[in-house]
Amino acid sequence: MRERFRVWETIVVHWGDMDALGHVNNARYFTYCETARFRYFGEIGLAELGEGGRYGPVLASASCNFRRQVHYPATLEVGTRTSRLGTTSFTMEYAIFLAGTEELAADGSAVVVWLDYQAGRSLPLPAVLRERLGALDSPAD
């Protein structure tokens, strides 16, 4: 499964990530995916496509499947990829592994919409963004 991902982010689990039951709190997984998503955005140079902050990405939905408990101390590796390109959005996938292993701790997805922030409406994905996503991954249309 790791071979499906080309962009990786290493996450060190902190003591404060734990909940009262002694494992990583479920909300922290969304933060881990967020960190990985912005790493991915950096890889494709997404920030330069927003025309001075007028346009850009917005998270429309996010999901996470919890596969195994993670306890402090731990190091995780989050793989991120684009799996689908739509007209105004793209779908990202995440896989969270215990570092250096094939042990999947969680996986999930997110739909990212390209938005005109001032107008508050979606816009077609810029051609250059589609090209960059296609060059990094091979998403389905």
Radius of gyration: 16 Å
Helix content: 10-25%
Mean pLDDT: 96
Looking at the structure, the CATH topology is Thiol Ester Dehydrase, Chain A
Number of DSSP E strands = 6
Beta-strand share of residues:
35-45%
Query: What count of domains describes the coordinates?
Result: 1
Shape: globular
User: What is the CATH superfamily classification?
Assistant: Hotdog Thioesterase
Tell me about the biggest sheet? 6 strands, antiparallel
What are the secondary-structure elements, in order, as H or E? EHEEEEEH
CATH class bucket: Alpha Beta
The span between the termini is 21 Å
Low-confidence stretches: none
Give the number of helices. 2
Oligomer: single chain
Helix/strand structural class: alpha+beta
CATH architecture: Roll
Structure description:
- The protein has 141 residues and is of the alpha+beta class.
- The chain has one domain: Hotdog Thioesterase (Thiol Ester Dehydrase, Chain A, Roll), CATH 3.10.129.
- Helix content is 20%, strand content 40%.
- The chain has two helices and six strands, in the order E-H-E-E-E-E-E-H.
- Strands 1, 2, 3, 4, 5 and 6 form a six-stranded antiparallel β-sheet that branches.
- Strand 4 and strand 5 form a beta hairpin.
- The chain starts with 6 loop residues before the first strand and ends in a 5-residue tail after the last helix.
